[in-house]
Design a protein that fits this description.
By secondary structure, the protein is of the alpha/beta class. The strands form 8 sheets. The protein has a 5-stranded antiparallel β-sheet. Strands 3-4-6-5 form a 4-stranded mixed β-sheet, with helices on one face. Strands 15-16-14-17 form a 4-stranded antiparallel β-sheet, sandwiched between helices.
Length: 1014
């Protein structure tokens, strides 16, 4: 341990690089054990995961502590004081300025100290622990008609403690103020372990030296601070003025963990407005939009956001045009939310705003469209993180603010400044109160990249200062901008910062390097510390389109915005199922990305594909694909995991589970002729348990039942002998064949061998719609199990054969019933095969629902159906679920679509070591929903034999279908079904509940009376 003298005279604790990686973590672990700290880590995987937040910076901590209560925090601070180790408080780690990282001890409050302690609807207040997630507080307040006012774009995962630390605002600060404006009381722990509760009582007796210091510097405070609402830079000392009641509570907001540790807070809640109106104003560009922003001061505006058309282009590129609602003409928009208690008056104000604005065009959005636009805006930081030609755009100058009257001129000059420096950025943000966000393409990987960044940041600071603005409007200064405060504030103000800091933290242990005695803005930048310099052995199997260094640059896509930590299932999303189950940072997409970044750098971890830390981080990744589309930056962890497994085991003996599960489709072809015998043998408990252990399968999992008659056999005998669309002239379907209506039905391996009834149901439904069905002669497979186990050479050969066969079937739609296989054809083939044929085939692939809607097919009456729908992760990620929702709604079904993953995820939940996590993932949404309907039996297999099914139940007569057979559907009866197209989803449902999943094809066939109900 060394100390460094600083200009203020403080002794600032620092940690030597070598010491932080070797002796110090071990010493801290010993001290923590002695002190009785229950949850901490010095593991390299965790340290890598916590080495960054949502910023540019990288500081590897010596240890991470997850305190359970106030007493443990006190014991950790005691250890820190004794050893002279810095302390950094952390919530969700969504800090963009580098506020939540440090080389000493990181205190993560989000795991254990995350509760709403008390909510008083009458007082409209709530006591919450520091690690309470904003969205959790909102959920608790909503039943009382209340909400917490400020709501940053990271509200789904950011913590209240973190919001206080940065004095966060969000879009609705116009209506509700900053976080600091909403603090009723604070419970803090000072560096010496003293616990202080700050409320509206006189704080001068608690902090007499601070009170005296303020009294001696009234002129400096009054002339430097509190000049406009978004002046967040530095310390908010204006709250300590006599006219503001010496309010230490508010002054603590924005101190970024440098004054003390926030344990809990009492926050003001407000009533939800009775009525809201969302209007979008279109302008020629963002500068024109900014010039019009001051107009909003005369209206009842709760939020006003600037939105650049290029952000929407990114969404369309990733998710398709249907993901973006229709907006008025323009290349830049103001998205405005007005609120009121009188609906008629609000409508009048909305129309007045439109008429008085200088917009080119306008639109009033309905609730659904407004929600879609706000969701796009919330993903802004990720959407602007790459240039159109694939270069990274970075934080740093992402949070400047000026008084709103100057916003238009400031933005005009700032865009000119970017051009002068040869840089690119997309502006957006909280235009209503003058706060501007952007990501800039600083060339940080170039030798002079740091200097380019420094030159621009200094020039931009001088520019914002000329307009009376602030380098930070809500993100805090952190390591990104603290150095720049000297260009914004007077020497007297800077000296006052240092004096206040010394009163609270004389040893300089609390988040050193931030605000006072700051780190240099180009120090500890991740991309300069971790250059893409390591040539990992082997030729990459996957194509990484748009990546300058392939895998090595792809893993740097993650900017740390932390959307993977959100409770995405509550909003219908998937990402990240392993984090949802474990609440462990290293098992989030962001945590894994940080570990992979360390691997490719060869710094904290060795640059080896078979790095144990990397495999530990990737082990619980379900390869759900959600991060590839739900993550705003497109961090595609399922692809990275497949690549790592491929490179690690190439030419080596693999775990048995890779062979048994990866080659299961090929094994199924061999076993099918002996299906009855195999099914009977699999019901023998002792033999089955032994076989599972040998194959690397968890003994609690069921063994799939092989169909005695596969779909292909049925197709080539029964179906092709007398297909309805050609031979049965009396069939209504034959009489109503659509001209040129033809599809290729992809007979995937899972459905062919284990659930042929579903493919047969699809045939019946398509023919009922007047569509001619073709099935290719070759027995082909998409190879997904080989991909998920990282056997990419075999997978590529397998998939190439499939692509060739499908490409030869003319330009007709390719339809399937297994979402994971369709997603492989649509997505993985472009990365693994990556040729023109794979693109042609991918363009033709559709889900059954998408195709039926596209041809305007008549639908059966499902008005008696109540469907609990568990979408497949791969369908949600690659195709979306909009078509299924629309089709079922048109058919009259009453549906509830679940978010979250089922937890089985192909081979993941079957493998030894994954059962508990698989069940925990299912507990996020699926199992609670089944229990609500009285269908969940628990987390054990349904039968003692481990099969979970009668051998003949799912495969009677091979397919359970005869195309000409009609049954009475009992339309007057309510039919409750659990709808799950994914084979793994249906297996999880069967294994963990008394329910049985059905597919969409089956449900439609039942509705038409084409197939008997099971």
């Amino acid at each position: 341990m060394t100390t460094m003298a600083h200009p203020t005279g403080a002794n600032r604790a620092t940690v030597d690089e070598d010491e932080s990686q070797t002796a110090l973590p071990i010493a801290l672990a010993e001290q923590f054990r002695t002190a009785g700290i229950r949850d901490f880590s010095i593991d390299d995987t965790d340290r890598a995961a916590y080495s960054s937040d949502a910023s540019l910076f990288r500081l590897v901590p010596a240890a991470i502590v997850f305190p359970h209560d106030d007493d443990e925090v006190a014991r950790v601070l005691s250890v820190a004081r004794r050893l002279g180790v810095p302390i950094t408080s952390r919530g969700a780690g969504t800090s963009i300025a580098g506020n939540a990282i440090g080389r000493g001890i990181v205190l993560d409050f989000s795991l254990h100290m995350n509760a709403v302690l008390d909510l008083d609807p009458e007082e409209q207040s709530a006591w919450v622990q520091s690690g309470c997630v904003h969205a959790h507080l909102q959920k608790q307040a909503k039943p009382h008609g209340l909400r917490f006012g400020p709501d940053p774009s990271t509200h789904t995962r950011c913590t209240i403690g973190g919001m206080i630390g940065n004095n966060a605002c969000g879009p609705r600060a116009l209506g509700y103020g900053r976080t600091g404006d909403n603090i009723l009381a604070l419970k803090i722990m000072l560096i010496d372990g003293t616990v202080v509760t700050l409320d509206d009582s006189d704080a001068s007796t608690t902090f007499p030296r601070l009170h005296e210091l303020v009294a001696q510097n009234l002129g400096t405070i009054r002339t430097n601070f509190g000049t406009f609402s978004r002046q967040v830079s530095g310390y908010g000392l204006e709250s300590l003025l006599p006219e503001n009641g010496f309010d230490v509570r508010q002054a603590f907001a924005g101190t970024e963990g440098t004054w003390g540790v926030i344990l809990a807070a009492k926050m003001r809640l407000v009533k939800d407005p009775s009525f809201t109106s969302a209007v979008v104003l279109g302008y020629a560009d963002m500068v024109a939009a900014a010039h019009d922003a001051p107009l909003l001061k005369d209206f009842p505006v709760a939020a006003c956001e600037g939105l650049d058309s290029r952000m929407l282009d990114r969404v369309i590129d990733t998710k398709g045009a249907e993901a973006v609602p229709a907006l008025p003409e323009g290349a830049g928009w103001l998205v405005v939310e007005l609120t009121g208690e009188d609906e008629s008056a609000l409508k009048t104000e909305t129309q007045r705003l439109i008429s008085e604005s200088k917009s080119l065009d306008s639109a009033v959005l309905n609730a659904r469209a407004a929600a879609e636009v706000w969701a796009i805006r919330a993903d802004g930081a990720g959407l602007v993180s790459r240039t159109p030609d694939g270069r990274d755009a970075h934080a740093g100058w992402e949070d400047s603010a000026v008084p709103v009257d100057h916003l238009g001129d400031y933005l005009h000059d700032l865009m000119e400044l970017l051009e002068e420096h040869g840089l690119w950025a997309i502006p957006y943000g909280h235009f209503g109160d003058g706060c501007l966000h952007m990501r800039v393409d600083f060339p940080l990987e170039d030798p002079n990249g740091g200097q380019v960044m420094r030159d621009f940041m200094v020039a931009a600071t001088k520019l914002v200062a000329r307009y009376g603005g602030s380098v930070s409007g809500e993100h805090g200064d952190g390591r990104a901008r603290s150095e720049l405060l000297r260009l914004m504030y007077t020497p007297a103000a800077l000296d006052l910062f240092a004096q206040v800091k010394r009163l609270f933290d004389p040893q300089h242990l609390l988040n050193p390097g931030v605000i006072v005695d700051p780190d240099a803005l180009d120090e500890s930048i991740r991309l300069t510390q971790l250059p893409l310099r390591q040539e990992l052995p082997g030729t990459l199997a996957m194509a990484y389109e748009g990546e300058s260094a392939g895998f090595a640059s792809a893993v740097h896509r993650c900017t740390g915005v932390g959307k993977c930590r959100a409770d995405s299932a509550a909003g219908g999303g998937i990402m990240c199922p392993s984090y949802q189950a474990t609440r462990d940072e290293r098992h989030s997409t962001r945590g894994r990305a940080r570990v992979l970044q360390e691997m490719v750098s060869g710094d904290l971890l060795e640059p080896r594909w078979d790095s144990p830390e990397v495999h530990e981080a990737l082990d619980l990744c379900l390869s759900c694909k959600a991060c590839g589309t739900e993550c705003p930056t497109g961090t595609d962890m399922s692809t990275y995991k497949a690549e790592v497994l491929h490179q690690s085991y190439k030419g080596k003996l693999r775990p048995m589970k890779h062979y048994s599960l990866g080659f299961l489709p090929q094994l199924a072809r061999l076993v099918t002729p002996l299906a009855p015998v195999v099914n009977r043998v699999s019901g023998l408990p002792g033999l089955t348990a032994l076989a599972k252990k040998m194959a690397g399968i968890d003994v609690r999992r069921s063994i799939p039942q092989f169909a005695s008659t596969t779909f292909r056999k049925w197709w080539t005998t029964t179906a092709e002998a007398a297909p309805k669309s050609r031979a049965n002239a009396e069939s209504p379907a034959a009489a109503s064949l659509r001209p040129n209506a033809e599809v290729v039905l992809f007979a995937d391996s899972w459905s062919n061998h284990f659930a042929p009834r579903i493919l047969a149901a699809a045939v019946a439904v398509l023919e009922q719609a007047g569509v001619r069905v073709r099935v290719i002669d070759q027995t082909v497979c998409c190879g997904l199990p080989l991909i998920s186990t990282g056997q990419l050479d075999a997978a590529k050969a397998n998939l190439s054969e499939t692509i060739t066969a499908l490409d030869a079937t003319d330009d007709v739609p390719i339809i399937g019933v297994e979402p994971s296989c369709l997603a492989t054809l649509k997505d993985d083939s472009l990365k693994l095969v990556a040729d023109e044929a794979s693109h042609r085939v991918a363009d033709r692939v559709q889900t059954l629902a998408q195709y039926l809607l596209s041809i305007g097919a008549e639908l059966p009456d499902l008005s008696g159906v109540e469907a609990l729908v568990q979408p497949h992760c791969h369908q949600s990620a690659i195709f979306g679920n909009a078509a299924d929702k629309e089709l079922l709604a048109r058919a009259g079904a009453d549906t509830e679509f679940l978010g979250g993953c089922c937890g089985l995820a192909g081979n993941f939940g079957v493998e030894v070591g994954h059962f508990e996590t698989s069940v925990a993932v299912a507990e996020v949404a699926l199992l609670p929903a089944l229990r609500k309907r009285g269908r969940a039996a628990g987390a054990e297999p349904r039968t003692s034999s481990g099969t979970g099914a009668s051998p003949n139940r799912a495969t009677e007569s091979g397919t359970d279908v005869s195309p000409n057979q009609a049954t009475d559907t009992g339309a007057d009866d309510r039919l409750q079904v659990v709808l799950a197209d994914g084979y793994s989803c249906r297996t999880q449902i069967t294994d963990l509940s008394d329910a049985e999943g059905v597919s969409l094809a089956e449900l439609l066939a039942w509705g038409w009376g084409l197939q008997p109900r099971r």
